[in-house]
Structure formats: C-alpha cells, structure tokens
Fold this sequence. Notes:
The structure holds 2 protein chains of 2 kinds. Chain A contains no helices and 10 strands. In chain A, a hairpin with a 5-residue loop joins β6 (65-69) and β7 (75-79). The model of chain A has no long low-confidence stretch (mean pLDDT 93). Chain A is mainly beta. Chain A has strands at 5-7, 10-13, 19-24, 31-37, 43-50, 65-69, 75-79, 88-95, 102-103, 107-111. In chain B, β7 (62-67) and β8 form a beta hairpin.
Amino acid sequence: GAGVSQSPSNKVTEKGKDVELRCDPISGHTALYWYRQSLGQGLEFLIYFQGNSAPDKSGLPSDRFSAERTGGSVSTLTIQRTQQEDSAVYLCASSQDAPGYTFGSGTRLTVV
Amino acid sequence: GENVEQHPSTLSVQEGDSAVIKCTYSDSASNYFPWYKQELGKRPQLIIDIRSNVGEKKDQRIAVTLNKTAKHFSLHITETQPEDSAVYFCAASGYSTLTFGKGTMLLVSP
C-alpha cells in the first residue's frame, strides 16, 4: 500500500480482556517495528522484525505482550489480560533500509 | 543500550524567531540521527535526518548539526511559523532500531 496501515484506529477494552492490534507495512519493506506512546511521553520500543530473522523482543514490557509477523508482511501485536497501564497509542513503523522509519497512524488503546 | 536525552521539553517562541532543540546520545556506535514532527493526534513524520559522516544538513528553514565527539545533535528551525507548532522527537540508531528522546513541544505564537 501507499503507507503503513494500522487497525483498529481506536480500541476500548475492559481490564482483563485480550486485544489484537494489526499493522500492514509498506509493500516491500523488510523491517517492521512496534512502539508505544503514552500520554505526554516519548516513543517506547517494543519489538522489531527484520526479514526472516528472529525478532528483537527486548522492548516488550511483560509476557502479556507478544507479536508475530506472517509471511514477512502483516504483523499482529497481542496484549493478553489487559491492564489500565497498557492504555496508550501503539505505533507501527516499517522501513526498507533500516532504520528510516515510516509510521502508521497508530491504534489508541483504552483499558477501562 | 542507547540513551537519548532531549531538551527543552517545551519551547515557546514568537513567529519569525528561531527555535533550537538539543539532544545527546550515549552510544558512540550510533550513526543515524533523524528528527520527527508529530502534530496533535497524528503520526510522527520524518522531517530531516543526518548520518555520522556529515556535520550539518539543511533543508529550507530546518537544519540539523551533529557533533560526534561530544555526542550531541541539534535541530534548528529559522523563521518559525504557527504551523511549526508540534512535538519534535530526536532519535539515534546504530544498526536497527531507533531510540527516541522524550520530545519537545514547540509552540509558535503569531
């Protein structure tokens, strides 16, 4: 596609529920990143996929967070048993020649 | 790992003035330094970047300078306009992921 597409744009969920966030990167981009942006905060790295290599999961805050990337394209970030502190904007980015990122518009997650 | 510090956290200027935002980084292996602009409710967008083999880069009213010895880099915006109002993030990278500063909220008053 023309840009990085994320869905849903907004998600409200009850505490304890699982959520899945989707990212569709720019066609041909081999690298895909997930970041989290809390209100008034910077961009916190979560996970990085590069081609067929094992992902860099060093930024995932707990084992409730996981992500996968199927076929080297679409990625899904899953948060299990959501907590209120998980409320944030989750941003996906992709790049062809790491690390010049193009960001998606993000998913605003609200846990109530 | 890399650590990026950004100052100031907020910056208010009058239209037409210059604005300067400064960042420092910790990892001497970092060699790519982009700046992103994020308007309210929108995605961060790359506005300018610099690699470690260059000391300065300009694009119209914006410029970035890099001092590798001191491990700091700066964003300069001249002749500021109200539409420059946004949050600006600096970042640094070695080979893969970007580490971001916490952002500077720039407010340009008419």
